[in-house]
Amino acid sequence: MHGSDPFAALVAVGWPPAQPWPVLDAEQRVARVAAQHRAGYVLHDGMESFKAQPAPAFLRRGLAPEQRPVVGDFVIVAIGKPPQILEILPRRSLLSRAAAGERYARQPIAANVDTVCVLMGLDGDFNPARIQRYLALIEGSGAQALILLSKADLHPEQAAQLAALRAALPADASALAINAKGAALHAQLTPWLLPGATLALVGSSGAGKSTLTNTLLGHAAQATAAVRVRDSRGRHTTTHRALLPLPGGACLIDTPGMRELKLTGNEDLAQYADIATLAEQCRFSDCAHGNEPGCAVRAALDRGELNPARWRSYLKLSSEREQQEAALEAQLRRHDHPRPPRVLGRRQREPR
C-alpha cells in the first residue's frame, strides 16, 4: 500500500476516473475488495494485494448481507496490523440474487460492475429460459448484460439455437458466439474491456468461465475441468468470487457456477416491456389474459406476434417475483428495516 499517486493506481482495479476522491485521514487508504474468505478479505490498491479484517460495525448480528463489504466494493481502510475495513464507498451497481433455501435472504454477488457477462455453452448447457432469468437479476443491478455463447468452435451449426435465443430475448440484448480459447476473443470483447471497466462473469459450472478468464489474463490463473458428456455439466473449479485485473486495464470478477437463480423480489422485469405494453391495450384493466374479451395479449399470441415460450417465461418470473417481494416485505417488517432501493434501475449503456 505504497506509492505517490494512489488515485492513478486504483484506476488499474476499476476506480472510475470521474468519481470524486473521498476525504481521508493520514492513516487511511482506498482499496478494492478482490476476494472474501471466512478468515477475512483480500484487498487490492492497484499496486499490491493484501489481507484485511472488517471493522466491528460490519460484524453486527442481523446486519443485512448487502451492508457488508462484497467483492468489487471500494472501501476505506485503516492502515494497521492487520488493516481494517472502515467504510464502504457508494456503489454504482450491485448484482444480487436470493439465497438458496426456504428462508428469504439476499446474497450479493458483486459490486461496481459495468457489464455482467452471462456465459452459456452451445452444448447441453444451452437454455434461453435461464438467460432470461439472469437478465431479470441483472437489469435492476445498475450493470448492463452481455450474453456470451461459448464453445462456438465445437458447435459451428448454431442457427437454430441463435434463432431460439433471439425469440426469447428483447431486441436490444447483446449476444456473441465465442470460442473461450480462441485468439479472436480479445477482439470480440474489446468494446467492453476498456481501462477502468469491470466485468463480472456468471454462468453454470462447465460453461467455460475459467477458460475464458485464463484467455483474457494470458496465463492459467484459474483451474479448469472437463464437463460430463451426458449432460454437459461441469464441476465447480472456481470456488469463490475473485476480482482479477486484466492486462488491458479492465477488471474481471470470476464467480462460481450458480445452480439456483432465485429472484430477489426487487426486479422490474423490464426485458418484458413489450408484454407490459400489450397488457395496457387490453379492454379491461384487470385482465388476467385468459378468456376475457378484448385481451391484447391473447390476440398477439393467436397472431403469432408474441412467442408462447416467452409468454410462459414472463408468467413464471412474474409469479416468482411477487412471491419473493412478499417474502422481502415480511422480512423487512420483522426487522424494521427500510426497503432496499434498486441500485440504479435498468439502464442500457453503450460500452465505455
Label the overall shape.
Answer: globular
DSSP strand tally: 13
Mean pLDDT: 85
Number of helices: 8
Runs with pLDDT <50, length 5+?
224-238, 344-352
Please give the share of residues in helix: 10-25%
- The radius of gyration is 21 Å
Strand-pairing-aware structural class: alpha/beta
Largest sheet: 6 strands, mixed
User: How far do the termini sit from each other?
Assistant: 29 Å
Strand % is 15-25%
Q: What series of H and E elements makes up the topology?
A: HEEEEEEEEHEHEHEHEEHHH
With strands numbered from the N-terminus, the spatial order across the biggest sheet is 10-9-8-11-13-12
Word description of this protein:
This protein has helices at residues 6-11, 128-139, 159-168, 185-189, 209-217, 273-280, 296-303, 308-335; strands spanning 28-37, 40-44, 49-54, 74-78, 84-88, 94-98, 106-111, 115-121, 144-150, 175-177, 198-203, 242-245, 251-254. The two termini are 29 Å apart. It is built from 8 helices and 13 strands. Helix 2 crosses helix 8 (308-335). The radius of gyration is 21 Å and the shape is globular. The protein is α/β, with parallel strands linked by helices and 352 residues long. A 6-stranded mixed β-sheet has the order 10-9-8-11-13-12, sandwiched between helices. Strand 4 (74-78) and strand 5 (84-88) form a beta hairpin.
